[in-house]
Amino acid sequence: MADLPYAIETDGLTKRYRKTIAVNDLTMKVPTGSVFAFLGRNGAGKTTTVRMLLDIVERTSGHASLLGMDSVRDAIEIKRRTGYVAEAQKMYNWMTVDEIIWFCRSFYDTWDDSFAAELKHKLELTGNRKIGQLSRGTQAKVALLLAMAFRPDLLILDEPTAGLDVVVRRDFLEGVIELIQTEGRTVFFSSHLVHEVERIADWVGVIDKGALIECSTLDSLKSRIRRIVLGFADTPPSTASIPNVLSSEALGHQLAVTVRDFSEVTLAAARGLKPLDLTVEDMSLEDIFVALVGGCEE
User: Fold this and answer.
1) Beta strand pairing call for 203-208 and 211-217
2) pTM above 0.85, yes or no
3) CB neighbours (10 Å) of residue 246?
4) Would you call 76 exposed, middle or buried from its count of C-beta atoms within 10 A (0-12, 13-18, 19+)?
5) Fewer CB atoms inside 10 A, N or C side of the chain?
6) Taking Cα atoms as reference points, which of 131, 136, 125 lies closest to residue 95?
7) pLDDT per residue over 93-135, tens digit each?
């Protein structure tokens, strides 16, 4: 695993439902050992992608490999080595926490009882509580324990914190990263809650309308997409001469321009508009996301 450069690779991965293209020609690489955030609005194709990766949904075309194995041909072995937490994951509501831990441990040769006990303590789970009596946030914690206790090489989380309150979401995500990153394993998680991703991800992929529109390290993304604020004596001029403009907004005599692939060429073009003053601003991941896809959903 340590010698494998990518934990997930896709090439032209596509899913069509009759005339609807849910995922379109997705080509992506997820580096081994990374915390990879797969971002997109609701309905962008995130869950369909995850389900194709795990062979839960049949792909229309293309190819995917996880941990160096074919996602279809080696699906059973992939599931044996991959932890998976789905949004509102289904579990046996009549079982207690301890019972479902006992039940699931029999499926994995690598199950670590001491690690499961550590997770149970850290996640503040009560063993004699029935799953059906737990809050949604606590059920998500149980699902996380079951996905991690066998020490998977890859952890896939599909909108794991959707519907949880802010404090629980923060603790959940930071707990995941703390627990799994200590061993250099790979975390791939999909989310539309962009403001929470920035603290924990080192790689980001952005999907919009089924197509991957960005895939890079977080640092690279934030260095390439910048906001230029220009001040003028009169009404701001057109931005047509500035390359790779994602969005622009005029506020009185000020003009805020968000650009992709920021460079000295971009800066020279902005200066060519003869502003009275010019500043280049860093942007948050949420602002970058909004500029890329044209809107953000909570």
Assistant:
1) antiparallel
2) yes
3) 15
4) exposed
5) C
6) 131
7) 999 999 999 999 999 999 999 989 988 988 889 999 999 999 8
